[in-house]
Amino acid sequence: MKINIIQKIVTTTLVLGSFTISFAQKIDEQAKKILDEVTQNYESKENTYFKFVFSSGNGKIAKNQSGIYYAAKDKYKLKIMGTEQIFDGKKIYNISADEKEVTIAKSDGKDAMFSPINYLDTYKKDYNVDYNGQKKINNVNANMIVLTPVKSNGLKTINLYVNAEKKQLVRLEQYSNNGDIAIINITNYKENQKLSPEMFSFNAKKYKNYLVTEL
Fold it and tell me: Which residues contact 210 (CB under 8 A, 6 or more apart)?
């Protein structure tokens, strides 16, 4: 199913927080300041939106998929390639338009949503953090921050590119030891929009002809 695409994207954002034991770290103060400011910026907004391109492959990029993402506090909506995922704060709804299928699962409180904040806050636990200068990304002079795991977790490096002036992420790159590459390139960003009250709600009436499975 195309729902697997969403699972792959969300997994990309979860790897950083997969270890909870603390090890000796090296955290560059300039990089820490940038990440903390970006995190505070995102957390201060009533809601956020970004359009992105998710690229993946092994050794080289083989697939590019466009998507959009909305979030308001602990709720979010993610759309990519005819597949939609909604989290209303209690349950996660995966909706496949092509296969006319909906799966519903209760959140156990440990579910991390697809959000740039997942990349920003978890560096404090198990990653060495280095500032690596500036690089032109999406016509922006972005600050490059490199995360490397203190203890082996399957990842080689994670590169974060930040527009420090606007305190926003521009691009996220994740490189695995097995050659897998996953990149989230943010192409458009908006915040504090007037959103519909139904933005993060699942309306079962719209999916009468779908196979609905509640886990």
Answer: 95, 100, 101, 102
Q: How many domains does the chain have?
A: 1
Pick the residue with more confidence: 4 or 31?
31
- Identify the pLDDT of residue 122: 63
120 pLDDT tier (thresholds 50, 70, 90): low
Q: Which domain holds residue 110?
A: 3-214
Q: Distance (Å, rounded) from C-alpha 66 to C-alpha 51?
A: 8
Can you say whether the dihedral through the CA atoms of 149, 176, 169, 83 is positive or negative?
negative
The CATH number given to whatever domain includes residue 140 is 2.50.20.10
Q: In angstroms, what CA-CA distances link 52 with 42, 126, 170, 184? A: 16, 27, 10, 6
Confidence label for 121 from pLDDT (cuts 50, 70 and 90): low
82-92 pLDDT, tens digit per residue, is: 889 999 988 99
The more confidently predicted of residues 3 and 81 is: 81
